[in-house]
């Protein structure tokens, strides 16, 4: 007697069964998407694997088949987030529009786009920054990613170092980035407080931050260009 499998029946009907590996990837993607949504809304302490299961439609058993628990899932989501931000920053840094652009014109455009990447990822970043206080893996991974980002942006700005009158242009550019990032973070409520979202406009904050950066760079001899 010849046994007929479910896959054989599917093929005889002109269909192909979905590869198990592909189904596994789809299930994992659903779990990660659900975890991201729940963490962005409720923070690390405000979500459970049961909620992830309900949100994703993936069973608890299947989730535990991929992750040892909530912490490992959170670490995976964190790494995915940082990889996405790294890709966005790389696209920003490699933009051919910067070629030949004077520092005075470059700074507002560059920092505006940095701010928007930050804002787009703020809900999840906030959850992880709070969690990092008690999670050394998230703390170390996040810190490493941040300083790599700083070095890459400073390296881009250093291509305009000759447009400043300073012996330490790298420190000046580093201060610009760190101070602006801190301002954006405070507004977006990254940390233990909500920030100033209800007190001022995001566009106004970006504009004022750019004005302060340009004024600061002018004190260090930034070359002025005509509009």
Walk me through this protein's architecture:
- Helix 5 packs parallel to helix 8, helix 6 runs parallel beside helix 9 and helix 9 (169-188) packs antiparallel against helix 10 (202-218).
- The protein is mainly α and 227 residues long.
- It is elongated.
- The protein has 2 domains: 19-67, Arc Repressor Mutant, subunit A, CATH 1.10.10; 78-227, Orthogonal Bundle (Tetracycline Repressor, domain 2).
- The N and C termini lie far apart (85 Å).
- It has helices at 6-12, 20-42, 49-56, 60-66, 70-93, 103-120, 122-131, 136-158, 169-188, 202-218.
- Report the structural category: mainly alpha
Range of strand content: under 5%
Tell me the series of helices and strands, N- to C-terminal.
HHHHHHHHHH
The CATH C-level class name of the largest domain: Mainly Alpha
Cα distance spanning the termini:
85 Å
The named CATH superfamily of the largest domain = Tetracycline Repressor, domain 2
Based on CA inertia axes, which overall geometry fits?
elongated
At CATH's second level, what is the architecture of the largest domain?
A: Orthogonal Bundle
Radius of gyration of CA atoms, rounded to a whole number: 23 Å
The domain count comes to 2
Pfam families: TetR_N
GO molecular function: DNA-binding transcription factor activity; transcription cis-regulatory region binding
DNA-binding region: 48-67
Protein name: TetR family transcriptional regulator
């Amino acid at each position: 007697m010849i046994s007929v499998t479910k896959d054989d029946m599917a093929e005889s009907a002109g269909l192909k069964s979905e590869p198990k590996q592909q189904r596994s990837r789809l299930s994992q993607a659903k779990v990660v998407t659900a975890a991201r949504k729940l963490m962005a809304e409720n923070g690390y302490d405000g979500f459970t694997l049961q909620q992830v299961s309900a949100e994703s439609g993936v069973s608890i058993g299947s989730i535990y088949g991929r992750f040892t628990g909530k912490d490992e899932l959170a670490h995976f989501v964190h790494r995915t987030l940082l990889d996405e931000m790294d890709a966005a920053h790389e696209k920003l840094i490699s933009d051919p529009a910067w070629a030949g652009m004077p520092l005075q014109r470059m700074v507002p455009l560059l920092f505006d786009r940095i701010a928007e990447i930050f804002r787009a990822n703020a809900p999840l970043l906030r959850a992880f920054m709070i969690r990092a206080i008690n999670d050394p893996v998230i703390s170390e991974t996040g810190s490493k990613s941040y300083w790599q980002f700083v070095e890459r942006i400073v390296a881009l700005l250093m291509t305009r170092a000759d447009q400043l009158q300073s012996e330490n242009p790298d420190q000046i550019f580093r201060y610009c980035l760190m101070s602006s990032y801190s301002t954006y973070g405070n507004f977006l409520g990254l940390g233990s407080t909500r920030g100033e979202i209800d007190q001022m406009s995001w566009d106004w904050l970006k504009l004022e931050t750019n004005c302060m950066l340009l004024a600061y760079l002018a004190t260090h001899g930034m070359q002025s260009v005509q509009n």
